[in-house]
């Protein structure tokens, strides 16, 4: 079998027929053909590929500022203006976040600890101040509840637990994991809201056994645990809400994936644009 290729410069009839089929004028066709093709350099192609890959790895949550930092971290020197243009060309759009809502409520019969933190969210070393809270997560099988423990020095999640019920056992498991991982010195402060789980006698006993001092925010003051609330906002709107969560098992696996991404890869301005793990390594 032989294939015959048509030279569009010499064969006027096929060009005319092609233009008729495509509803394009001949002059427009020849003007397009004479236009020089844009040459993309190897460096520009690498920029496009890495920008797209990093944006996808963040589950479409990296804005231009954060994307510049990640690219610079890889040795790709680029301005924020250039990254904005690349994001526009590649159609990389960030979904806006929604407001965080409080989950836990206090039983008035339980004891409330003093606010030892007073919105001082930047301790000078690791294992000095931890903070925690609980949030709800919706799946196709029903609700799940996530409890976390964060080291405020690096913003690293040092303990977490997830279950279909919001109980004192849930927050206790998160604290036990954090304690076993970090082995903090005596006198560590753990800050939370005044939810019934955190004001319970069982949790107070757990903290006392670890020589951890409890601290609790004021009623109605959501900013008293603002760092943890921002984490929950990132978890939900930058990650979990981007995909369907059909089952509780899928949700648990996806939360675990974000914890790994957050601790190892997500950059924080308070850490000098380093991830929590990288920031802690520099401190050692």
Describe the structure.
With 284 residues, the protein is an alpha/beta fold. Helix content is 42%, strand content 13%. It contains 10 helices and 5 strands; from the N terminus they run αααααβββαβαβααα. A 5-stranded mixed β-sheet has the order 3-2-1-4-5, sandwiched between helices. β4, α7 and β5 (213-216) form a beta-alpha-beta unit. The longest helix has 17 residues, at 248-264.
Write the layout of secondary structure elements.
Elements: H1 12-22, H2 26-34, H3 42-57, H4 64-73, H5 80-90, E1 129-139, E2 142-151, E3 156-163, H6 168-182, E4 189-192, H7 201-209, E5 213-216, H8 226-237, H9 248-264, H10 276-283
Parallel strand pairs: 1-4, 4-5
Antiparallel strand pairs: 1-2, 2-3
Helix pairs in contact: 3-5, 4-5
Specify the helix fraction band. 40-55%
Structural class by helix and strand composition? alpha/beta
Oligomer: single chain
Our Rg estimate from Cα atoms comes to: 27 Å
**Mean pLDDT metric:** 83
Low-confidence stretches: 1-12, 97-102
Terminus-to-terminus distance: 72 Å
Number of helices: 10
Main sheet specs: 5 strands, mixed
Report the count of strand segments: 5
What would you call the shape? elongated
Give, in spatial order, the strands making up the sheet with the most strands.
Answer: 3-2-1-4-5
Q: What portion of the residues fall into strands of 2 or more residues?
A: 5-15%
H/E element order: HHHHHEEEHEHEHHH
């Amino acid at each position: 079998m032989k294939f015959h290729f048509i030279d569009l410069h010499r064969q006027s009839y096929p060009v005319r027929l092609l233009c008729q089929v495509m509803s394009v004028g001949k002059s427009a066709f020849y003007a397009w053909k004479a236009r020089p093709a844009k040459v993309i350099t190897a460096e520009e192609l690498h920029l496009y590929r890495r920008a797209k890959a990093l944006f996808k790895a963040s589950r479409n949550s990296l804005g231009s500022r954060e994307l510049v930092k990640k690219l610079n971290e890889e040795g790709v020197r680029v301005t924020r203006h250039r990254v904005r243009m690349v994001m526009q060309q590649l159609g990389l759009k960030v979904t806006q976040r929604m407001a965080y809502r409080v989950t836990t409520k206090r039983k008035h019969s339980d004891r409330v600890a003093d606010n030892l933190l007073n919105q001082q969210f930047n301790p000078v070393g690791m294992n000095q101040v931890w903070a925690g809270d609980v949030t709800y997560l919706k799946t196709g099988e029903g609700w799940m509840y996530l409890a976390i423990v964060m080291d405020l020095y690096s913003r690293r999640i040092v303990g977490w637990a997830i279950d279909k019920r919001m109980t004192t056992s849930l927050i206790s498991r998160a604290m036990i994991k954090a304690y076993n991982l970090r082995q903090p010195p005596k006198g560590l402060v753990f800050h939370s809201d005044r939810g019934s789980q955190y004001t319970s006698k069982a949790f107070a006993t757990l903290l006392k056994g670890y020589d951890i001092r409890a601290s609790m925010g004021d009623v109605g003051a959501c900013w008293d645990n603002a760092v943890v609330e921002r984490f929950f906002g990132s978890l939900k709107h930058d990650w979990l809400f981007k995909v369907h969560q059909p089952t509780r098992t899928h949700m648990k696996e996806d939360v675990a994936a974000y914890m790994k991404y957050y601790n190892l890869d997500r950059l924080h301005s308070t850490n000098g644009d380093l991830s929590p793990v990288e920031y802690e390594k520099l401190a050692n």
